[in-house]
Amino acid sequence: GLARFAVSSIPINQQTQVKLSDGMPVPVNTLTFDGKPVALAGSYPKNTPDALEAHMKMLLEKECSCLVVLTSEDQMQAKQLPPYFRGSYTFGEVHTNSQKVSSASQGEAIDQYNMQLSCGEKRYTIPVLHVKNWPDHQPLPSTDQLEYLADRVKNSNQNGAPGRSSSDKHLPMIHCLGGVGRTGTMAAALVLKDNPHSNLEQVRADFRDSRNNRMLEDASQFVQLKAMQAQLLMTTAS
């Protein structure tokens, strides 16, 4: 059933799957570490009205703190993925209107938008971060950029700090293409920002339980997380 919503055919854990208020499951999981929710993780929504409506309803109903799109511009064009977070659209009952806020920081690599969502009486504005220079299966160009990005995600959380939510509400929603490598790396970076002493092997194991056994499978991305952790521990020690 979920195949109609996600671009990727990666199997996911149905126990942690996010459901809309009408009970419909979406191809998104709540990633947890040490029993605490960290982020919502999914693959790029499929370019169909159904899939995009479900994705937007989820952002609205769960009042996600921000939307983090890690799919590069090249990959979006190559795979003809819908740039749904830019401009104005109507997907079923949901209307979107997105305004670009900034694109200057970190070597032009991150665009920020504010996306207004409305569905019936419900309205919600979500900050969007689009990271344009993160290649699939590879780390970001620098460890500093990963840390900077984690800071941006935490700071755009107008609902309070991530890791404080006890449910699947008010969390950052993160997706790349398949929702395992870059997405897992980004979520793990948020964990490290909350507590640099976190055991990354345990983070990986918990994320695999939360979504699927391919989370954080790319060695080079894991190496970058280790480097970020070392940097954070050095800073906290000094």
TrEMBL record:
- Tell me the superkingdom of the source: Bacteria
Instruction: Tell me where it mainly resides.
Output: secreted
Q: Which residues form the Tyrosine specific protein phosphatases domain?
A: 147-222
Q: Which GO terms of the molecular function aspect are on file?
A: protein tyrosine phosphatase activity
PROSITE patterns in alphabetical order = TYR_PHOSPHATASE_1, TYR_PHOSPHATASE_2, TYR_PHOSPHATASE_PTP
Which locations, inside or outside the cell, does it occupy? Secreted
Q: Which UniProt keywords apply?
A: Hydrolase, Protein phosphatase, Secreted, Virulence
| EC numbers for this chain | 3.1.3.48
InterPro entries, per the entry: Prot-tyrosine_phosphatase-like, Protein-Tyr_Phosphatase, PTP_cat, Tyr_Pase_AS, Tyr_Pase_cat, Tyr_Pase_dom, Tyr_Pase_SptP/YopH
**What PANTHER family does the entry give?**
RECEPTOR-TYPE TYROSINE-PROTEIN PHOSPHATASE (PTHR19134), TYROSINE-PROTEIN PHOSPHATASE 1 (PTHR19134:SF449)
- Protein name listed in UniProt: protein-tyrosine-phosphatase
Output the lineage of the source organism: Bacteria, Pseudomonadati, Pseudomonadota, Gammaproteobacteria, Enterobacterales
